Description:
Layout: E1 11-13, E2 17-19, E3 28-31, E4 44-51, H1 62-73, E5 83-86, E6 92-96, E7 101-108, E8 148-155, E9 160-167, H2 173-187, E10 237-244, H3 246-255, H4 266-282, E11 289-297, E12 315-323, H5 324-329, H6 332-344, H7 348-360, E13 371-376, E14 394-397, E15 409-416, E16 422-431, H8 432-446
Parallel strand pairs: 7-8, 11-13, 13-15
Antiparallel strand pairs: 1-7, 2-7, 3-6, 4-9, 4-14, 5-6, 8-9, 10-16, 11-12, 15-16
Helix pairs in contact: 1-2, 4-6, 4-8
Protein name: Os06g0710700 protein
GO molecular function, one term: hydroxycinnamoyltransferase activity
Family: Belongs to the plant acyltransferase family.
Amino acid sequence: xxxxxxxxxxxxxxxxxxxxxxxxxxxxxxxxxxxxxxxxxxxxxxxxxxxxxxxxxxxxxxxxxxxxxxxxxxxxxxxxxxxxxxxxxxxxxxxxxxxxxxxxxxxxxxxxxxxxxxxxxxxxxxxxxxxxxxxxxxxxxxxxxxxxxxxxxxxxxxxxxxxxxxxxxxxxxxxxxxxxxxxxxxxxxxxxxxxxxxxxxxxxxxxxxxxxxxxxxxxxxxxxxxxxxxxxxxxxxxxxxxxxxxxxxxxxxxxxxxxxxxxxxxxxxxxxxxxxxxxxxxxxxxxxxxxxxxxxxxxxxxxxxxxxxxxxxxxxxxxxxxxxxxxxxxxxxxxxxxxxxxxxxxxxxxxxxxxxxxxxxxxxxxxxxxxxxxxxxxxxxxxxxxxxxxxxxxxxxxxxxxxxxxxxxxxxxxxxxxxxxxxxxxxxxxxxxxxxxxxxxxxxxxxxxx
Length: 450
């Protein structure tokens, strides 16, 4: 279900201010982990939450409530009020001196209903509801800047929009959600957050000496020629949201081999389907290497002893790789096998190997050519962020996940399809001439067999 086109509107934003911790905090320098400070983490991740008016909150200003709770949350989470500094070997550390996070309040002549049934990213006109773009001349610097930017936009109906930009070096999605929920608890009157934060970055420091023990294809360019996707101008790209509801998931299971049909997660089914369909639609040469790279979270794994309250980056990119000819010539089961194998490869040893590689190789960026990068945020619980006004109407990424290069990365999120059924939604972005082919490929793989 799509959001409605917004009417013409204006946003009147106040002067941004620094919000500092509400009480004295330690003055110290804290090192990020060697997973935190890789090149691929050095950007700001944007999120948006939309709330309706709550009559019980009449007379209360959401911007003031959130600002006060934010200052209190920054006491236990004081590193988030610091600034990054780069040391020898491109190592990032946080200078903790209570410098503060950036905050702005704004007003928009819109209502929550004007956004219609917005279910998936990108959020309509998201640029107007986050404090600022942190990109300078095509680069997104993170050193010496606030680590968090927040804008609270009051709506004409009494609702509001909470927009944030978090430096990914210091938090991943679950870590950012942990902090936001701490702010919510304080905004709703709690004396302290229910989860005490833990720094714990030593968990993912390189060994001495560093000894990468895996090939880490995610940081090596694939074999083959130039990627047509990376050379396609933005104006020649088109974005279409694809919904994988009960019918589509059932169709994918029918196309999977009987031996793994019942053991495949929705993520594995959808990722394999999109990777195969996308590769066919882009027309890569049969001998060219193609990859699916996706985030595997280490939280909750018995072999990764994370301290309770850890809010740093605790994931790795795992890679499924093959040639375009083998992927498109094989059935869905072939792609599924590669996805499942890559997913199971991420262990604590693998994460330590990534940290070692970051130090040895100068903290490189992951490879992008002929690579489809996926982040599954469908279980992040974005809508549960409640500042006292109730559950969010929309909660999730501000953008579709494309980043600076359209079509390379995607978020998998959860929403409802046109029938009101819970679905996995993926906002696919491809060259215009490839989208029709992609749709046909997906339809063939999701069609239920008679």
